[in-house]
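Pinned message: reference record for Epoxyqueuosine reductase
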Amino acid sequence: MNPKVINQKSKYTQFIKSEAQRLGFISCGISKAGFLEEEAPRLEAWLKNNAHGQMGYMENHFDKRLNPTLLVDDSKSVISLLLNYYPQETQIADSYKISKYAYGQDYHFVIKEKLKELLFSIQENIGEVSGRAFVDSAPVLDKAWAAKSGLGWIGKNSNLLSKQVGSFFFIAELIVDLELEYDTAVTDHCGSCTKCIDACPTSAIIAPYVVDGSKCISYFTIELKDNIPQEMKGKFDDWAFGCDVCQDVCPWNRFSKPHNEPLFNPNPELLSLTKKDWEEITEETFRAVFKNSAVKRAKYDGLKRNIDFLK
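Predicted structure (tokens):
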């Protein structure tokens, strides 16, 4: 290849990675856009086993999930980015728990803004580049792309794990029609550890690296619109929205450091809510405490249903 072209690719890649850092992303890795060959049979088997429960949207756009070139015309590169959300402080002990990722403002909006700025910066400094931003609400296998881009490996709890920062981070992508330098995958460092499998309150990790989504506390407390099955009574370990157990017990998360994104800071009231406060929460308090939070996905009635189930 022409050395001039190689040099240009390298320059563009370095620029994108330093911009990502400036915007607060903790890691940035890049892969060549194309068909995810290894993921195809895995996704097919997972859907066939109904591991997605009522998450019907997981069956949609099967081809697009596996091939970003169908999402973005003429796409050449998938830029994967990680944004830390590990909190400085957590909820008091006598409380119903919500997932740490939902402490602050809804990450979809926070990250979308950063991705827009990154794309704008690429266009300003590199030239005419087309691309689209994705934050887990589109048919993109973000963990697979992040792993392919060397940002970590998929652990036994099916989360992306990093030796440097653990797993308390969001994953996002920018898919662009620009050729860049590509990163390589890292090796798996789970070893013989089974802490996440042993600790899962509902035995949702049915085998190493395989999670039955329809058994996960996050599924029951967020995605499931029907009543929570009675056989799950007493198994939720006080989780009212989401669940962090398989991350909390992961040895790699001893390297988690608090984020420095002000928008992810929780409403102080949230951290001090007792079980009694949760049980008596009014719609007005719900709206005030979770004003721009991802918890609004469960809606007031959904959160009440979860808390009643935990009582």
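Pinned by admin. Summary line: The chain has twelve helices and ten strands.
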